[in-house]
Each structure stands twice: as structure tokens, then as C-alpha cells.
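Archive entry. Fields below.
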Amino acid sequence: MDIVRLRGIGVSPGIAMGDVLLPKLVIFTSRKEAISASEVEGELERLRLAIRRTKADLVQVREKIREKMGKENSFIFDAHLLILEDPTLLTGLETIIREEKSRAEWALSKTNGRYEQLFESLNDDYFRQRKSDVSDVLTRIYRNLDAQREKEQPPGTPHILVSHELLPSEAAVRLGRETTLGVALDMGGVTSHTAILARSLNIPAVLGLRNITGHVREGDFVIVDGTDGEVIINPPAAVRREFQAKKEKYDNYRRELQKTAHLKPVTLDRVRVRLLANIELPEEVRMAMSLGAEGVGLFRSEFIYLRTASLPSEEDHLAIYSRLAAEAAPHPVYIRTLDIGGEKSLPQLNIEQEPNPALGLRAVRFSLMNKGLFRTQLRAILRASARKNVRILIPMVTEVEEIIEVKDIFEGVKAELRRENAKFDENIPLGVMIEVPAAAALTDLILREVDYVSVGTNDLIQYFLAVDRSNEFVSYLYKPLHPAVLRLIRSVIQSAQKAGKEVTVCGEMAADPLSAIVLMGFGLRTFSMNPIFIPRIKKAMRSVESKTAELIVSEAMKLRSAQEIEEYVIEEILVRHPQVFLMGGPAHTAP
Amino acid sequence: MIDKKIMIRNKLGLHARAAVKFVNLANRFSSSVKIEKNGTEIDGKSILGILTLAATQGSEIRLLVSGKDEEAAVRSLLELINNRFDEKE
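PREDICTED_STRUCTURE:
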């Protein structure tokens, strides 16, 4: 057997190994098998039987997906059922069998080709893409023609799923099975539907392998290393042992993380902190909770715009937010309104290229220029708030006037909903992100207008230090512990305390143990971060006294540089609490 | 037979979700439902037909409905389109 190592994109960390399952992609036949006139009726019956089986499959899958992943994911099967029962499709298939006296396989292949051509000729990209829905349905019928092939694999055999590409409907079904240990695809990248699902379900996955389907056969043994983006086909025993060890190490690490989930997030002197998750998909809520998140501190709504070819409707937004609120309840969900513009552009929004995107028409500036879009989003967030665990977060505010304008629109939308008798939380908290230094300097005045603030440290530091951290020539200047940055953040936290309002930090500083302890020393109690880091922050918090942190940090603020501050804090903390920065396992391999 | 011209007003046009609603509604009536756009006529009870019309926002279509319950069918279908398929935009 050939040993092959392939590099791809590791989109979901961890190691999986097992036998390959290559789902039978139906290669539509190009061979026309003739039948006699007397066989035609039998062939038609064979086709109808396959259609009935397909219908039963689709109904079953739809119910399963609806239950597991919500209505917005099961909708696709409503469309597929209608395609299956489409009168023109059935007559077309039957006509081919009758007139050409051919097998159903030929009729399906010919029909697929016809629709492919028909859809290809459309001049709208969204409608052109629908050809894959037709193929999806025809493929299912094709598979069901053969009674033996109907069940392609006995469920219960664990396997590594290898395929060219997965249709969204397929990804949901296949990854939802407990027997799928790992995934390796020719196509796809970090933001593909399969990648997102794999991460949320904790299934190791490597995508973008180009041609793994050309290298493996069903039954080959493969290793999928989702951490380092590698797939090894038919590894020799030594390599297998090596990866077995790596797998155990990673799995142990994950288990250690999960174990901390039930521990209370309190400091040694019993000060309660709250650790929330930054996420971008409703599917991630469960994983975040399993890692100990007490809610979603930052829901990035941009992906809602990424998943549709055109602009999402209010119902599209609502479906996502309702699900999010339901999954997180009774814990809170902070939904950040669209943070797009500048470098984070979307094709359907036709945003103009700007010479200086970071300082351009972004986030709330964009929303206030596109009030229709903004209202749609606010309406959906409000309509999802009936459980009273939803909050609104406005990104990139620069001056108080913007907040006044946002509130004006917000009140208008509320009044509209009242007239429509829609249910929503009248007291839904409205907060703003503090990421522009000007807003940080105005925190006390801003807090008169809003219920809470959330500090986005990544942007705040970049703007405050005038450093683009992705620019390799100056990124060394990007220092979260820069004394100026710490003074600014301290003043934000203190302003909030004085106003008696909540302040959250949701940038990367919240996920770094040392920075988080410094923030805690300033009086911060709510931290929001990539959920994978919650266990290590919880562990750090549980191993220090808030009193000690306060003392050390107030001394540290007398120092002149980030380096002096870092050294001083580490030293002083370690003297008193040697456990703080220890974290078993390869924390750096986490995404 | 009733023959009505109407404009598709919702943002996404007669996309898959809207098409599902249209077909499901049309199927509740015994009348035949045809849609014509730019000289192409398709069966309004066929989702494939509707999708291949590629009727985006602002498209003018004609509904040609005939049968016993044609009046009720036209009324319901026009309402669905005018309500932008219950979509907000």
C-alpha cells in the first residue's frame, strides 16, 4: 500500500484516525442501456419506487435536522421535497424512459445534464447555483434505484469521511452522525459550512486537500490531523504510534478543559467573575457552554450576511437570533450589530474601496448610512428578545451624537413593533463597544446614554498606539500592556464602576491570563473570549486573590514600559500564587 | 382564465424560500397556475420552473390562472407576492 502525506487546511483541531468512507458520489452515467418495450412499465415502477424511498429519506432527514439544528438549516429539505415532487421533473423522467426505452439511470443522468445547462444559462449567480439542489435530489433518487445500495454503510461503523466536497445539506447530516470521526475534503476552507460545523461539533477536519479523493480508496486507513492540517494515508506502524500519542495528548487536553466547566469562576478570595464566549454561529453555543461559558458576550452577526448571496431578510436574522437566545437561555447573549466596511467587505453590499479602510466607513458608521439594513437587524434582535436574555451592542462608536442617532432609530423600531403587537423585551439593554480611543475618553458621558459598555481591546490598542498589528514592520509596537493602554482601559473600567454600570472586555486581552489578571486588578468582572480559552482563564482566576491582583496592578501602573509591567506582574503574582500560569497541555495549538 | 401582471418586490426575488411558499400555496388550488416572464411561460406548481425563471427583485411577471377556483387562487397568490412572501424587504 502506498503511504501518502497530504497538506491541507486544518479547520478543526484534533487528531482522528480510522477507515475511509467515501460516500458514493453518483457519477451520472453516460451509458445508455436499452430495454425492451415490455420492460418499460417495470422500469417506470422502479423509478417511482426510488422516488418514494427518496421522499421518505428526505422527510426523515428534515425532521432530524430541524430538531438538531433548527428550522433555518432544515428549510433546504422543504425545497428538495418540492423538487422531488415537481410534476415537470417526473414527466420528464418518464418520457425519457418511455420514448428512448432506456433505464432510469439514463433518464436521471440526461435530466441532470439538461437542468445543469438550463441553470448555467441564467444570468443571476444565486439562481445559477440552484443547479446543485437539482443534482442533490437526482443523486438521491439515483442511489435509491438500487435497493442494495440504499444503505451505503451500516451506521455504527466509525469512519473518516473523505469526499470531494460536501453539499450543505450533506454536511449537516453526515457530521451530525456520531460515527464520523474526522473529515478530509478536496475542497473548502476555514469559513466553509463544513469547517464551521466540524469545529462546533469538535470533529477534526482538514479541507482544501485538492485531490485526496484521487489518493484513497474505501477501506484505506487514514490519519486526519486537524491541528496541523495534514492527512496521512496508510501510515506505517511507527507513524501511527506517533499520532496515537499526539491524539491522546490532545484528547486529554480537551478533557481537562471540559472538567473545568463545572468549576465556579471565583477568585481565591471568593470574588465572582463572569466568563462569556465570543462566537459567530448559533451552532457554537453548545460547545461554548460545555467549556464553561455563562453566556455569549459577543455574537458577531457578520456571518448572517456571509451565508446568503443577497442581503439577509428580517426573518433570516430572526431565525438565527431566536435560536441563539433559546440555546443560551437563561444566560445572556450580546448581539453586536453589523461590523462591516473597510477591509471586512461583503460583495453584496457594494462598499467602495477606501484608501484607509480602518479609518473609514465601518460598523455603526456604515449602519447609520444604511438605515434600512440597520432597522431590519434591530427589528430582528428585538423580536428575538422576548426571553429577556438578549442585549444589543453597537460597534465602533466615536461620539455621543452617534449614540443619540442610534437610540432614535431604536425607539422608532420599538414603536413600530408595539403597533404590530410584536412581543419583545421593553427593557432590552443597549450597549456600545469602546474601541475608538475618543469613545474611551468619553466613557462617563457615553454611559449616561447606554446601559453598558464593552471594550474591544484589539481595535482600541491599534487605534490608540497607531499600530497596524498585521504590518510586520511595526507589529512589535502592538503591546496590550503598554502603560498608556492600561491607563486608558483602567479609566474606562473605573468610569463604569462610578456610574454603576456594567463593563465587559471582549478583545484578546480577556483571553490572555496575565492581561486578564491585570484587568481583574482594575476591577473588571466580566470577560468575553473565544470559548476555547475560557478554561485557562477560569483556572487563572481561581488561583489568584483579587486583593493581590489589585495591589500588584496599582504598583505596576507606576512603571514606564510594557516590559517592566509584564515582568513585575508575573514575578509578584508567581511569588504569591505559583499555580496561575500553569496549564496542562498544548494550549498554543488551540484555535 | 384570469391574467394578472405583477411586480416581484421582495429583495431576494423568487428565490428558493419564496418559491417553496408559492408552490405550496398554488398546490392548494385545483386551478392551473402559469407564470410568464419575458416570453417564457412555466408551470407555477413547479419549483424547478420557478427557479429557472430567475425572477429577481423588480421583475415583471404575469400570472395566468384558470379553473374552478381561479378567483381565490389569484387573490391568494397576489397577496403572497405583494406581502413580499412575508419577508421584510
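CURATOR_NOTE: Confidence is low (pLDDT under 50) at residues 149-154, 584-591 of chain A.
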